[in-house]
Specification:
mainly alpha, three-stranded antiparallel beta sheet, single chain, binds zinc ion, 347 residues, flat
């Protein structure tokens, strides 16, 4: 068929082989980057660990897609980037949609893999994959030494996705096809989950403001970006509480030993998640709280996540407009109605 010559050839078994090799190399890099320098450790391997692991997972996804159809030529149409479909006049004042050009020599990207998965009912946790992709892209721009903790997080989060995918979609035992790499990932994941749980428990006694708890989970070590942060024992021994002593209360990173203030880190995590671009005409969602002076007052929630302060007046009694901290002195009116009211009193 004429069409077949337009599609590059595809070897599904090769895809699978490359996927497994890439994952094994990634785990090797991962191990090397965490080891001490005098034991052959090499922090510069952090980035190649992420690159290899992520590439391996995508290759495995493509292999799965390729094996959903029997004809290798069909498989190729699913794996290579398809030509663009564009409208053309059919010569009778109608329209025809036709593919323009050939299949590209490059294989499908993450977004297209997702579309193929949907088309063939293949399930995977895309939230995790997208998060890993974000992490991968972000690590490309950092110095490797600042990424060791984040790499460890990455591998731990990747593990369950990979495990489920290999078991349910490829229907193979992961320990068999990934051999030693599998054992390393398994142990690391177990260590990570256990440690992460210990950290969570330890913060229970540290007086973290209730509203800020979700943002504690988002905090990363300023030195290595690990999420494995413990409250510092010194702070606990002194009886300090994050809520009242945020200028003193410290965290200790379990991945690299670095310590720092936890309060500002939580506030930063909250503000980063509510980032806005004034050039797009966007308004800030978080501002300084008039009660406790932390940058934790969430405007649309009309409440402070740090001290739980709420507004006396939440909406204008004339027009129902939502009120902010600035409007409180107007006794329940928005600035416009406060002004007209005042003007009417004067006249
Ligand atoms: Zn660290
Ligand atoms: Zn407050
Ligand atoms: Zn009003």
């Amino acid at each position: 068929m004429a069409q077949q010559r337009l599609i590059p050839e595809l070897d599904a078994e090769k895809l699978r082989e490359n996927a497994l090799t890439s994952i094994r190399l990634g785990v090797e890099d991962f191990e090397r980057c965490l080891r001490q320098p005098d034991e052959g450790g090499d922090p510069a391997r952090a980035l190649s660990a992420i690159r290899n692991l992520f590439a391996g997972v995508l290759l495995l996804f493509k292999y799965k897609i390729a094996t959903c159809v029997d004809d290798p030529a069909d498989a190729a149409t699913l794996i290579f980037m398809p030509p663009e479909v564009l409208p053309q006049s059919d010569g009778a004042r109608g329209v025809e949609w036709l593919p323009v050009g050939k299949f590209k020599p490059t294989t499908i990207d993450v977004a297209t893999i997702q579309k193929r998965f949907e088309a063939f009912d293949i399930e995977v946790d895309w939230d995790v994959i997208n998060k890993l992709q974000k992490c991968r892209n972000h690590l490309e721009h950092l110095h490797p030494a600042n990424t060791l903790g984040e790499v460890a997080d990455f591998v731990a989060e990747l593990f369950p996705v990979l495990r489920d995918f290999i078991q349910t979609q490829l229907q193979e035992p992961p320990a068999e096809i990934l051999a030693e790499a599998w054992q390393i990932m398994l142990l690391h994941h177990k260590f990570f989950v256990d440690t992460s749980r210990q950290c969570k428990l330890a913060w229970n006694d540290a007086g973290v403001p209730k509203g800020m708890e979700p943002w504690l989970d988002e905090c990363q070590c300023e030195e290595c970006a690990s999420s494995l942060l413990m409250p510092s024992q010194d702070s606990l021994d002194l009886g300090e509480l994050v809520e009242h002593n945020d200028d003193r209360f410290r965290y200790a990173c379990l991945a690299c030993g670095h310590g720092g203030l936890i309060g500002p880190l939580m506030v930063e995590a909250l503000n980063k998640a509510h980032d806005y671009d004034p050039r797009d005409g966007e308004e800030p969602c978080v501002e300084n709280c008039y009660q406790c002076d932390h940058g934790t007052f969430v405007i649309y929630e009309q409440a402070c996540l740090w001290c739980a302060a709420e507004l006396d007046y939440t909406e204008c009694s004339m027009c129902d407009e939502a009120l902010g901290q600035d409007d409180q002195e107007n006794g329940g009116l928005c600035s416009y109605h406060a002004y007209t009211f005042e003007k009417a009193m004067r006249d």
